[in-house]
Write a structure and sequence with these properties.
Membrane topology: Single-pass type III membrane protein
InterPro entries: DjlA, DjlA_DnaK_co-chaperone, DjlA_N, DnaJ_domain, J_dom_sf, TerB-like
Structural class: mainly alpha
Radius of gyration: 23 Å
Distance between the termini: 54 Å
Keywords: Cell inner membrane, Cell membrane, Chaperone, Membrane, Transmembrane, Transmembrane helix
Subunit structure: Homodimer.
Number of strands: 0
Strand content: under 5%
GO cellular component, one term: plasma membrane
Helix content: over 70%
Largest sheet: none
């Protein structure tokens, strides 16, 4: 907007009405270029359209919980483990009152036989096109729900693969995301057990912990310190809460992004303390 205003003003001062017209056009091109660059960078869309961001947040919220419900029912019925996991996820997001009811309604909608899984994700991708980090977080959240009982059934894996494909992720990248989450899950458990020397020796803990930490960052055991740091910085950028909220992540889900950032940070710090 400011490009058009300033362009018109300066154009008028230097070239009267003809200059104003030319200045308006050049200002419009300047505004459009800036917005495209910000969109491509994946942030600060709220500076251009706060209402649009709010709509995207509502869509993300509904789609997130409805797809959760659909995946949870992929085995024929929703288990108590999945119901409990959904409740704990809502607790983590500090959902209560109307917000919690909306999440529960969306979860139930996803369980319904009439739920349009493919169409829902196609619309989701259309509205979040170009916001790669947000789409990736969405898949990670769905994996977290499916993996709540410690393993993936074939039907759960198939639906997750379909969701990833509909959102534009290749099979290779889906496998990468899945491996990272499984490592994140195990690394978290490993850290909780690291103080229990009766279960395993300190050496075993360090070896196992290092492997999981490397997988959390998505790097191999032969990765150099520079490569590990590069992977760490990339993942931290992808999961930055403020950046994701600017792209349309509901503020309730900031806690999820924060936790993932903390896990990535912990894996990186672990590798610095336990070099090869």
């Amino acid at each position: 907007m400011w490009g058009k205003v300033l362009g018109t003003l300066f154009g008028f001062l230097f070239g009267r009405w003809l200059g104003a017209i030319l200045g308006f056009y050049l200002g419009h091109m300047f505004d459009r270029s800036i917005k495209q660059n910000f969109d491509k960078a994946g942030g600060f869309q709220s500076l251009f359209s706060g209402e649009e961001v709010s709509e995207r947040q509502a869509l993300f919220f509904y789609t997130c919980f409805s797809v959760m419900g659909h995946i949870a029912k992929s085995n024929g019925r929703v288990s108590e483990t999945h119901i409990k996991a959904a409740g704990l996820f809502m607790d983590e997001m500090q959902l209560s009152g109307e917000s919690r009811q909306e999440a529960q309604d969306a979860f139930r909608a996803g369980k319904d036989n009439e739920f349009t899984f493919k169409e829902t994700l196609q619309e989701f991708k259309r509205r979040f096109s170009g916001r790669y980090d947000l789409l990736q977080l969405f898949i990670e959240i769905q994996i977290q729900m499916a993996f709540c009982d410690g393993h993936l059934s074939e039907s759960e894996r198939e639906l997750l693969q379909q969701a990833a494909k509909l959102l534009g992720f290749s099979q290779t990248h889906f496998n990468f995301i899945l491996k990272r989450y499984q490592a994140e899950f195990k690394f978290s458990q490993q850290r909780q057990q690291s103080g229990d020397k009766q279960r395993q020796s300190t050496t075993q803990t360090s070896v196992m912990g290092r492997k999981q930490a490397l997988d959390v960052l998505g790097v191999s055991d032969s990765a150099s310190a520079a490569e590990i740091k590069k992977a760490y910085r990339k993942l931290m950028s992808q999961h930055h809460p403020d950046k994701l909220v600017s792209q349309g992540l509901p503020e309730h889900l900031m806690e999820v992004a924060k936790r993932k950032s903390q896990d990535i940070q912990a894996a990186y710090e672990y590798l610095k303390k336990h070099p090869a």
